[in-house]
Design goal:
The protein is α+β, with helices and mostly antiparallel strands and 292 residues long. It has helices at residues 2-8, 53-68, 160-163, 187-190, 196-201, 232-242, 248-254; strands at 72-81, 84-94, 97-104, 114-120, 123-128, 139-141, 169-170, 180-186, 213-221, 224-231, 257-262, 281-283. It is 19% helix and 27% strand. Strands 7-8-9-10-11-1-2-3-4-5-6-12 form a twelve-stranded mixed sheet.
Length: 292
């Protein structure tokens, strides 16, 4: 189990070239329809009255659009395999930027493998809790085309964990009347859930994901998207259909993974995203590695 979990770590972050657009801002254009006011009345969802497909689609779309214009959108992204949580990222996105804490929890990892990330404007900074002096407590400023540890869902502007809400679509009806429906994401957006190094080994650079979609499971209620679940099996099959040709071993590992995104209700004490103190910042070219 330990060796397999360590191997799965390659798949446990977030992806490469998701193509997801930044979160919507008031007055700005959106790839999806214009923001619609209104909330989902979850009390009307009873087992005796299943939600029809069109109604479920409208409810999910309204909820996602509304969340993309909230002052704060909290998110939790979990990558798991064989009942083991490999990576868990908890954060929040605002109109100014986003911040997150990522815990790499797969069993083969030693020491404290917690990463903190702050992104504001076009700049992203990272801090590893386990960094020794002189980097302890410091923030590494990433270059324009760099992402934290290859996790390219963590892009400036809006992390793909949140921006993929812009592309989420409910395809089925809520058969149990409890606000759980089958849906889909464009492959280009769903690829953000796979580690970029794994995608490279699978040969995605030469594929055209246009027109390909990945099945997802959507939980919604109270005017919000509550959870989106994507299986590695479905991602792997969509990538195969799109023309990936390599990385058989990585593909087999991907098929064992499940990606879960949860969207908690914003808290009243959520604060604005602030850039790290200038005295604690450094860049990779500095010697010694650190801010002190």
């Amino acid at each position: 189990m330990r060796l397999r979990a360590a191997s799965l770590a390659l798949l446990a972050a977030s992806g490469c070239g998701s193509g997801a657009e930044p979160r919507s801002t008031p007055g700005s254009p959106s790839p999806t329809s214009a923001i619609q006011a209104g909330t989902l009345d979850s009390t009307s969802l009873t087992p005796a009255a299943p939600v029809r497909r069109a109604e479920a689609r409208r409810a999910v779309r309204r909820a996602a659009d509304l969340m993309l214009t909230e002052p704060v959108t909290p998110f939790v992204a979990v990558t798991s395999a064989e009942d083991v949580t490999l990576v868990e990222t908890e954060g929040s996105a605002t109109l100014e930027g986003w911040r997150a804490t990522t815990r790499f929890t797969y069993p083969a990892e030693d020491g404290d493998s917690t990463m903190r990330v702050v992104s504001r404007g076009t700049t992203t900074w990272i801090q590893m809790v386990g960094w020794p002096e002189p980097a302890r407590g410091c923030w590494l400023e990433l270059g324009p085309r760099q992402v934290p540890l290859g996790i390219t869902a963590m892009v400036p502007g809006t992390p793909a964990y949140v921006s993929l809400l812009d592309f989420l679509r409910a395809d089925g009806s809520s058969a149990d009347g409890r606000g759980v429906v089958e849906g889909s994401l464009p492959l280009r957006a769903a690829m953000a859930l796979v580690d970029g190094r794994a995608l490279q080994r699978m040969g995605v650079s030469g594929i055209d994901p246009a027109g390909q979609h990945v099945p997802v499971r959507i939980s919604y209620g109270g005017g919000r998207v509550l959870q989106v679940t994507v299986t590695g099996d479905d991602l792997s099959e969509s990538l195969r259909r799109a023309g990936t040709s390599g990385g058989l071993e990585v593909r087999e590992l991907l098929e064992a993974v499940t990606y879960t995104l949860r969207f908690p209700v914003p808290r009243s004490d959520d604060e604005e995203v602030r850039a790290p103190d200038p005295g604690l910042r450094f860049d990779a070219g500095e010697e010694p590695f650190g801010c002190r």
